[in-house]
Amino acid sequence: MLCARRLGGLTARAPALLPGRSRRGGCGAGLRARGVSTGWSPVGAAFNVKPQGLRLDLLGERRGLFGVPELSAPEGFRIAQEKALRKTDLLVARVCSTPPGPQTVLIFDELSDTLCRVADLADFVKIAHPEPAFREAAEEACRSIGTVVEKLNTNVELYQSLQKLLADKKLVDSLDPETRRVAELFMFDFEISGIHLDKEKRKRAVDLNVKILDLSSTFLMGANFPNKIEKHLLPEHIRQNFVLAGDHVIVDGLHAEAPDDLVREAAYKIFLYPNAGQLRCLEELLSNRDLLAKLVGYSTYSHRALQGTIAKNPETVMEFLEKLSDKLSERTLKDFEIIQGMKMKLNPQNSELMPWDPPYYSGVIRAERYNIEPSLYCPFFSLGACMEGLNILFNKLLGISLYAEQPAKGEVWCEDVRKLAVVHESEGLLGYIYCDFFQRADKPHQDCHFTIRGGRLKEDGDYQLPVVVLMLNLPHSSRNLPTLLTPGMMENLFHEMGHAMHSMLGRTRYQHVTGTRCPTDFAEVPSILMEYFANDYRVVNQFARHYQTGQSMPKNMVSRLCESKKVCAAVDMQLQVFYAILDQIYHGKHPLRRSTTDILKETQEKFYGLPYVPNTAWQLRFSHLVGYGAKYYSYLMSRAVASMIWKECFLQDPFNRSTGERYRREMLAHGGGREPMLMVQGMLQKCPSIDDFVSALVSDLDLDLETFLMDSE
């Protein structure tokens, strides 16, 4: 997944947690190539040994986090922030006194970059740094920058400097497409903050934005908050599956993989029991989003949220989801019959299929049909081997190599963070990826990509190199054992590295649209496409070696793994359709015709098929309503696009260099600087329809005959 930060009119546009060049073919080609460093070492070996950095760093000069001199201590955030704010004041004065033209857009982008370089870095540090003092300083920096951005979003003179440019047709026609799009994106961000309204309505828009931010934060906290029940209400034999606290049992999740049906049922009913405060919070959040959308000129929040996306509007999203649901219906019913058959076999006394059953029983069916025990696969997927596999793939497809580089003292926040230099064979150094891959206390559990610094063409002609962080939660290596990945971990690594390559290769002139700063339903395409590479035997065979014997992973192991993912996959996809439609209804026409729980019940029974369980309210745990409001469909649409690209461009030869270069040129190079559908069309060499997207997703569920035959050899 991608991590996003919204800076009002100055927006870093990419959600984690998934993913440039100008229209002339890229800034990279016109820049001086950066030379190869003698401090770089092969990537595979660097990840299969413990870092030796601390010993070397004793002699080095302390440089600060990410090489930012001020950030050698927590107090440095205040210094970096003050420096950024002084520069902001100068840039605001400069843009307001500059005659409208291309220079206006360049100054706006530098203003955005100045604030994002502190805010994006602080956004990461506040959740990832192990030291509380750094986290608190970063949190304060986020608040301060947010306050400044709020003021800029209501600065009429700043807004008018951009408006003058876009109101002059002759000037607009003279802009190149990327500059024009960036100017329009800045204007769009201003106007959804209400700056074009009269003074009274503008104040109302600001108040609504603040309220929505507060409600979002409250809802997120509530979505993850555990529920408790008096322990005497639970059968004694299942209590040990939960956390006990005095006379209460604490339930902090759905326990979806628990073998005991009663444990799963109890967890479902207790964890999803409605909380009145959380219910009010959700209703207020949806209502205030609708009010803000109407205030700034949209009929619904969905219409506002989907501006500039592949889908473009909620009508297209609903058409996509309803057609997909229709195509899935027979397969979904068949999957439910198979799951129910397994439940009847294991629990004949209580064989009715309930919402807490599919994840567990589909796992049982997979294990029974295919021998995919993770312990059989892990020895072939050492972290070093997987990183070398990525290196081989990027080298063959794109002419790019990954090198481990020794970080300076103070540059990383934990000694096991690795720093990678991303180097092109002719263009030189493209940027840096910091790999925060290992488990530690208080580290967030999700796998994420963070933009720390966006790429852009600077005034002096040099290119500002992008810097990103990939965060995973892998086990540490030991003296005798390297870090070994399960197949799921390996796929997640490939997924997140897809985002990182998008950041490295989205070498746009403007940081506002660099790399993954693009619409949500496009941002996940490069990362999901990497999952297809991770599941292709020709790719896996390049790197999957037993860490002790050096033996290659047998073909039939890869084919079994791929086919096992298709077991009950229609049910999984149908569940995603249900969630996405629920999200669209919640952000559609207001006032809602029924309560959010009644809408959930009706939508679940129509678009999923399993009965609603009375006195539950799953929507109150639907945390994606905050970061992906009206955009939850994006994952399905991104997967459809990635599937089409894989089948039509890479399936025949996953290492084809000319196809890789076309992928870079058409899809990755523009970041968010071009309409997403134009990029998709450029890659596929046709304009895909909704039916094409649906067919791509459904065909992914079919048995792969080539894989089947390979498994039979």
Automatic annotation (TrEMBL):
<dbReference type="GO" id="GO:0006518">
    <property type="term" value="P:peptide metabolic process"/>
</dbReference>
<comment type="similarity">
    <text>Belongs to the peptidase M3 family.</text>
</comment>
<keyword id="KW-0408">Iron</keyword>
<keyword id="KW-0007">Acetylation</keyword>
<comment type="subunit">
    <text>Monomer.</text>
</comment>
<dbReference type="InterPro" id="IPR001567">
    <property type="entry name" value="Pept_M3A_M3B_dom"/>
</dbReference>
<keyword id="KW-0482">Metalloprotease</keyword>
<dbReference type="GO" id="GO:0006627">
    <property type="term" value="P:protein processing involved in protein targeting to mitochondrion"/>
</dbReference>
<keyword id="KW-0496">Mitochondrion</keyword>
<dbReference type="GO" id="GO:0005759">
    <property type="term" value="C:mitochondrial matrix"/>
</dbReference>
<keyword id="KW-0170">Cobalt</keyword>
<keyword id="KW-0464">Manganese</keyword>
<keyword id="KW-0106">Calcium</keyword>
<keyword id="KW-0809">Transit peptide</keyword>
<dbReference type="InterPro" id="IPR045090">
    <property type="entry name" value="Pept_M3A_M3B"/>
</dbReference>
<dbReference type="InterPro" id="IPR024077">
    <property type="entry name" value="Neurolysin/TOP_dom2"/>
</dbReference>
<keyword id="KW-0645">Protease</keyword>
<dbReference type="GO" id="GO:0046872">
    <property type="term" value="F:metal ion binding"/>
</dbReference>
<protein>
    <recommendedName>
        <fullName>Mitochondrial intermediate peptidase</fullName>
        <ecNumber>3.4.24.59</ecNumber>
    </recommendedName>
</protein>
<dbReference type="Pfam" id="PF01432">
    <property type="entry name" value="Peptidase_M3"/>
</dbReference>
<keyword id="KW-0862">Zinc</keyword>
<dbReference type="GO" id="GO:0004222">
    <property type="term" value="F:metalloendopeptidase activity"/>
</dbReference>
<dbReference type="InterPro" id="IPR024079">
    <property type="entry name" value="MetalloPept_cat_dom_sf"/>
</dbReference>
<feature type="domain" description="Peptidase M3A/M3B catalytic">
    <location>
        <begin position="255"/>
        <end position="697"/>
    </location>
</feature>
<keyword id="KW-0378">Hydrolase</keyword>
<keyword id="KW-0479">Metal-binding</keyword>
<keyword id="KW-0460">Magnesium</keyword>
<comment type="function">
    <text>Cleaves proteins, imported into the mitochondrion, to their mature size.</text>
</comment>
<dbReference type="InterPro" id="IPR033851">
    <property type="entry name" value="M3A_MIP"/>
</dbReference>
